Amino acid sequence: MSVDLQARLRDVPHKPGVYVMRDRIKRVIYVGKARDLRKRLANYFTPSRAAQADIKTRALIDSIWDFECHLVKSDAEAVLYEGRLIKEFRPKYNISFKDDKRFLLVRVNLHEVWPRFHLARLRKDDGARYFGPFAHSGALRTTLNALRRRLGIRSCLPAEPTERDYKHCHDDIIRNCSAPCMARITREEYHRRVAEACELLDGQASQMIGQVEEEMKKAAEKLDFEKAAQLRNLLEDLKKTTKPMTRFTRKTLPSAIHPAEDLAALAEALQLGAPPRIMECFDISNISNTHIVASMVRFKDGVPDRDGYRRYRIRGTSNQNDFASMAEVVRRRYSRVLRESGPKRDELAPPTHASVAEGQVPPCPALDSDGLQISEVDYGPEYSQDEPTSAFPLPALPDLIIVDGGKGQLSSACKELQTLGLFEIPIIGLAKEFEEIHRPGRPLPVILSEDNGALKLLQRIRDEAHRFANGFHSLLLKKRMSESLLDDIPGVSENRKKALLTKFGSVERIKKLPAATLAEVRGISPRLGEEIVEYLTAASRRKAG
User: Fold this and answer.
1) Distance between CA atoms of 138 and 372, rounded to whole angstroms?
2) Which of 132, 283, 345, 385 has its CA 20 to 30 A from that of 40?
C-alpha cells in the first residue's frame, strides 16, 4: 500500500538536495534536484498544482508509490549527485544525464618530465592524479586557464616539448607559459608550480582568491571597471571550482535494492540448489507484423551486465507469433553459445531424472501445447534416454533462463533447449498480468507477494529486457520511416533502393550527396540521380516548414 505522501511532505526540510521517486516495487522512476526540497515536492503532491501539470508529469505522479530525500551542501553537489543517480538507475521519466557523457575531471601525470593539466571525463587507473568531478564546466575551464597563466604551466600537447615545438608556440611571448622547453625554468621549479596548482584544485585556494580580490579592489580604485569586472567573474569561477564537495561513489548511492538478498530469496522461492549468479531473460517486441525483434539481457550477481546484452531481428516468421519468435531467439542464442564455448553436440547428453532434486525447478521436460509435461521425453534425433550423462562444464551458460510470457512461450523455449541438449539449465516464464511464475511440467504457477525480493528481482530483469527490446524496435521503425522516402520516388525500385542504402548507409547521408555521386551506383542514371536529389531536398524543406 502506498505511503501517505502528503504526510511525508510535511517532514521535508526547506534545504537543497536530491529527491528519488519510486514505484510500487521500489524501482527508481525519477530523480530530481532542488534548492528547496519542500517547495519542489509540493508541485507533485499538492492536488491543485498536480492538476495543472503536463501529461508526462501526471503519469509520473500516478506512478509514485514512495519517495526519499537526500540533503547536500550546495546546488553544485546536487547536480553531481543527481547525475550520478540517474546514470546508476536510469529512471524511465528522466531525460537528462542518460547518455554516456560524464562530468569533467582534471588530469595531471606528475611522473612526466614536464607535467600539464588537461580535461578528461573518465577516471583511469594509469598512475595520473585526477581532480573532480566538477559540476560547472565553464567555471572549471576559466579556473584552469587562470592557473596556467599565473603559474606558467604549459598547455602544449607533446609529452616532452623541445625547441622545435617552441617555434610553433607563442604562449611564452604572451606570458602564458614558463617555456620549460627553452630551459627558462628548472625542472624543480616547474614541478613546484605544478604542485601548487594541484593544491588549488584540491580546494586550498584561499591565497589565490585573496590575491584576486586585492587585484579587483585596486582595479576598481583606478576606475578600471572592465578589468575589475573580469576579476570579479574570475573570483566567482574560482570559488565554484575550488569549493570542497562530496564525491559520490556507487557505495554512497541510496538503494532499496539488495541484489545478494534478492538472489537468495529467488533461490529459495524456486528451490534452486544455489543463488543463480548469471541470469538471462528474453523478450519479444512487435507491432502487427512490422519489425519483429527480440532482446536478451544478462544479470550477473543480481545487477545488469550490459556488456552481455543482445538484440535480434526475427527472421523465421513474418507474422505476429510470439511462440515461434521466442523459439527462434532461444535457439540462436544458445546455438552460438555452444559453438563459442567449445563442446560439440555429441559431447552433451540429457541428464537422468535422478539428477533433478525433489521440488526444484524442472530444467526442461517435454511439454504439450498447454505447457504441461507429456509422458515420453523426446530428446531429438541425436539422443536417446539410454545415453550416459555428461559433466562437461559450460561456463558461458546461465544459471537461470527467464522468458517473458506464460506457458506457451515457456514451452517453445524448452523445446529449443531440448534440441540443443541443454537439459539441466533451470528455466521459468514470468507472465506479466498477474506476475505468475510458470515452471516446466508444473500445472500451477508460483505466485509471490509484491514485497518479495525474488519477485522484485525477476521484475527488474523482465522490465530491462522489455525496455531493451522496445528501444531496438523504435530504432528500426525510425529507420524504416526514413527509408520509406525512397519508396515514393518514381523510378526507384526495391533493388535500386537496396543498392543506394548498401552503398551510402542511410537516407540522411544520401540527402547530402550530389546527383553525380548517386549516379555511380549501379542502376542509377544521372537523370534519376537528379530526381532523387530534388525529391529529398523538397521533402526536407516540407519537414522544416
Assistant:
1) 64
2) 132
- Nearest in space to 155 (alpha carbons), one of 186, 197, 100, 126: 197
Q: What is the pLDDT of residues 301-339, one digit of tens each?
A: 998 888 889 888 888 776 778 899 999 999 999 998 888
pLDDT band at 483 (very low <50, low <70, confident <90, very high): low
**Cα 195 versus chain centre, distance:** 37
Cβ neighbours of 63 (radius 10 Å):
16
Bond from prior residue into 526 cis (ω within 30 degrees of 0): no
The answer to whether the beta carbons of residues 371 and 342 sit under 8 Å apart is no
- Per-residue pLDDT of 380-405, as tens digits, reads 333 223 333 333 344 478 999 999 98
Please, what CATH class does the domain formed by 488-544 belong to? mainly alpha
Classify residue 467 as left (phi > 0), alpha (psi -120 to 50) or beta: alpha
Class for the domain spanning 5-89: alpha beta
Over the chain, what is the mean pLDDT? 77
Task: Report the residue count for the chain.
Answer: 545
Q: Calculate the dihedral angle through the C-alpha atoms of 79, 82, 84, 89, rounding to the nearest 10 degrees.
A: -160
Whether the predicted model's global pTM rises above the 0.85 cut: no
CA distance 128 to 111: 8
Distance from the first to the final alpha carbon of the chain: 50
Give the number of other Cβ atoms within 10 Å of residue 415's Cβ: 18
Query: 331 vs 57, which has greater pLDDT?
Result: 331
> Which CA distances in Å does 237 have to 83, 142, 175, 201, 449?
21, 7, 22, 12, 53
The residue extents of the domains of the chain are 5-89, 104-242, 259-473, 488-544
Alpha carbon distance 326, 284 (integer Å): 7
Query: pLDDT tens across 209-262, in order?
Result: 777 788 888 888 888 788 788 778 777 777 777 766 665 555 555 555 688 889
Dist CA 140 CA 132 (whole Å): 10
Continuous segment of H or E residues that includes residue 430: strand 427-431
CATH of domain 259-473: 3.30.420.340
- Quote the CA–CA distance of 173 and 220 in Å, as a whole number: 28
CA angle 246, 247, 248 (to 5 degrees): 110
Look at residue 254 in the predicted model and tell me its pLDDT. Answer: 59
Contact status, residue 288 vs residue 304, Cβ threshold 8 Å: no
Q: Which whole-number Å values give the CA distances from 68 to 4, 21, 22, 460, in the listed order?
A: 13, 7, 8, 20
| Residue type at 259 in one-letter notation | P
Distance CA 410, CA 418 (A): 12
- For residue 180, give the 3-state DSSP assignment: helix
* Helix residue ranges per DSSP H, 105-162: 137-151
Pairing, β 118-120 against β 104-108: antiparallel
Q: Which residues of 422-449 are buried (b: 16+ CB within 10 A; e: fewer)?
A: bbbbbbbbbbeeebbbbbbbbeebbebe
The pLDDT tens digits for 410-449 are 999 999 999 998 888 999 999 877 789 999 988 889 988 8
